Structures are given as structure tokens and as C-alpha cells.
Amino acid sequence: MERLTGEEVGRWTANIVRQVAGFAPWLREHGFKVGIPETLTAIAALVELDLTHIDEVCSAFRSIYSRTPAEWGIFPSLFERYFCGRGVQLEEKRRFQPDDLVGGSDSGAGEQADRQTVESVQGFLAGYHPNDGERYALRADEQVLKDVVHLTRLAVRTMDAPRGRKWRSRGRGKIDLRQTMRYAMRRAGEPFVLKMRRHRPGKPRVVLVIDISGSMKPYAPFITALAWSFTRARARTEIFLFSTRLLRVTSLIGRKGVTGLTYADLPGLKGGTRIGSALDQLLHRYPSLLHRHTSVIIVSDGFDAGHPERMHTSMRDLAARVGRVVWLNPLLGEPGYEPTAVGMSMALPYIDAFVDVHDVETWKKAVLGGALRAAAP
After folding, report:
1. Which has the closest alpha carbon to 331: 349, 358, 359?
2. How many other CB atoms sit within 10 Å of the CB of residue 266?
3. Which of the residues 73, 75, 130, 175 has an alpha carbon 20 to 30 A from that of 26?
4. Alpha-carbon span 132 to 124, nearest angstrom
């Protein structure tokens, strides 16, 4: 398949309007419902886009032409096939000559030179190689996904959950008259055995707060797989990432945790680590997520560059509001490590479980050891 290198894109030009106009009919052949309005919008967007960055053009066109989740998912591959793999005839740019204004004798030769096409070279556009992992900020380790999902579902079943609205026929509670009569009709009609019913437990509430600072980069593939597994468990899960600020990424992790999250998907999450500030934002921006049945899982190595007093205040308020605070520290299992950092020492008094989790084995040990288990009443 023919591709253009990023350096070459800036040297070519072509009939862009004709190419974009033919893109909508080509998308309709693949099930998209697009037409002239989308084409006009795309052409108008080209004025504001940097055509030397094909990723930027793809993202802009994706928001214009995609209407459904299915179209949103398949659009990048269709964009690449149309604009990068169909051998589009590109013409080399020509400097504007003064002779063109007066219709000099060289004008005919210049027009002929304009019509000459140049073949594109073999190469890949930056960011489109399927095996290129450098452009991903977070990407789950696919080799451990199956085991991690199994352990996460096991952990969720042991967590505290609020009372649900539905009833089920078991345990102590109200008499289930319907089940009692059905059981009696099978035994001569005498209701000797009373069937009881009680509220079915609802889904546990989990808030996952993950540190993605530079010191956590070696553990990022497994931690991303762990976060993605919570979206596949029977739990009401909310996922947040933080470094110097807090970002809610629940749906983003669920959709792109395995394929990979680019740096463009996570704006503003670069720099140092301010755990106390991130938890303070969680408390003030998302108070509806924090209840007595909520389990907050913090994944961080505990190195906080913020003010220690903010860390202390945030952890104190968080522990008072939620049911359980679990801190997963990937450094805890290393020989000689002690949680003596200022931020970590401030948080320890308010943590219900402080465990080492950095791979499948340590996650299994934490789950079977009851780190996420509901506290006894």
C-alpha cells in the first residue's frame, strides 16, 4: 500500500476539494449516512487545519462524518484507506512566476510541469502504524487481560453494595406470597413452608483513582488492564486519572483501554504529581459518587509534590465520606521500601488496606487476601 512520509506531505498539493468531495460517496458505500452538508463542513474545516499533520485532519473529519459509535470506531481505518492507500495523484507545488501574469512564452511549459505527477514513496504516516506503541499514553497489557478480568469480578462480588430495588426469594424478610402458594400447590395445597423474600443487593460502587505520573510509567500497561477490567465487572465504576490535575476517563478506558489511549486523549496530564490536589478535586467536583457504600481505590506510588496539609485534609475528608479506601502501591513489594514519603505518611492513617499490586500475581494475592472485601458490620 502506498503511503506518504510526514516530511513529504508538506511538499505536495492536489485538488483537495475533489478528493474531499469524493470521500462522502465512498463512505456511503461503507454504510455511512453522509452527504453534501458534511462535505461542505469538511471543506470549510480544511482552512483551519494543518494538512501536514494527518492525525489532526483525521480527528476533525471523524467528528464531522461519524454519527454512531460504530461509525466512530471504523472511521480511522476508512480514512487511512481513502487518503493514504488509494494512490491519489498528487502534484508538486510550483512557485508563482512573474511570467504567468503577462502570459510569457514559458507559461505553456509551466502548465505542463504542473500536470506532472510524482509517485509517493513507500512509508507509513506517523501515528498510523498498527504496532507503533510510542504514541500511546496508556495501553493495556493484552497478555494478562483474561486473568485480570477474572480476578476483578471475583473481587467485586466481595465488595460492599447498597440495597437494590428488586426482590429475590431467599433469606429473611417479607413473605413471598406467590412463591409460597406455588410451593403449596405442589404439595396438596397446604402452605406449611413459608417462602421469604428480600431486596437483591445492587451493584457495588467503585471509584478508581490512578496516578499516571512519570514514576508510574513502568506499571502503566498492567494498571490500564486493571482499570479496563473494572468496566467489565458487575459494578458501578468511575475511573479517574491524575498527575497535576484530575481527569474523568471512565468511558474512554472502556472503549480504548485495550487499543490504546493517545496523549491527545488525555489533555493536561503531564508534569509532576499532586495527589492531595487531585483528591480535593474529586471531593468537590464529584460528591455524588462518594457514599458509604463506595470503595475508593487509589493507585499510586505515593510521591506527592503538593502541599502535605492538602494531602492530609483530602484523605481525612475522603475516608469520612466513603465506606472503604484501598491504596495500591506498586513499590510496596520492593526490598527495602518504606512508605516514608511525606505524602504517603500523611495518607496512611486513613487507609483501610495498603497493598502491593503491580502484576497478576500481586493482584490475585490482594483479592484473595480480602483487601477489597466489605468490612464486617
Report:
1. 358
2. 17
3. 130
4. 11
Q: How far apart are CA 103 and CA 94, in angstroms?
A: 16
Q: What's the pLDDT band for 223 if we cut at 50, 70, 90?
A: very high
For residue 138, give the C-alpha cell: 496508556
Rg of the chain (C-alpha set): 29
- Quote the CA–CA distance of 260 and 263 in Å, as a whole number: 10
Please report the beta strands in 196-352, taking only residues with DSSP state E, as ranges in sequence order. Answer: 196-201, 205-211, 236-242, 246-248, 261-262, 294-299, 324-328
Instruction: Place 360 in a pLDDT band, splitting at 50, 70 and 90.
Output: very high
β-strand 205-211 against 236-242: which pairing, if any?
Answer: parallel
**Phi, psi for residue 35 in degrees, rounded to 5:** -160, -145
Residue 331 dihedral angles phi and psi, to the nearest 5°? -95, -10
Beta bridge partners of 198: 168
DSSP lists the bridge partners of residue 136 as: 262
Q: Are 268 and 217 in contact (CB under 8 A)?
A: no
Please give the residue that has the higher pLDDT: either 48 or 231: 231
Query: Cα dist. 300→94, 291, 357 in Å?
Result: 55, 22, 10
Checking if the pLDDT of 164 tops 60, the result is no
Predicted model pTM: 0.58
- From edge to edge, which strands make up the β-sheet containing 174-175? 163-168, 196-201, 174-175
C-alpha cell at 235: 459494578
Domains of the chain: 6-115 (no CATH), 165-201 (no CATH), 205-368 (3.40.50.410)
Residue 345 amino acid letter: S
DSSP for residue 266: S
39 in Cβ contact with 20 (< 8 Å): yes
Q: Pull the grid cell for residue 198.
A: 428480600
Q: How many CB atoms lie within 10 A of CB 341?
A: 15
User: Which residue matches cell numbers 406455588?
Assistant: 182
Q: What is the 3-state secondary structure (H, E, C) of 64-127?
A: HHCCCHHHHHHHHHHHHHHHHCCCCCCEECCCCCCHHHHCCCCHHHHHHHHHCECCCCCCCCCC
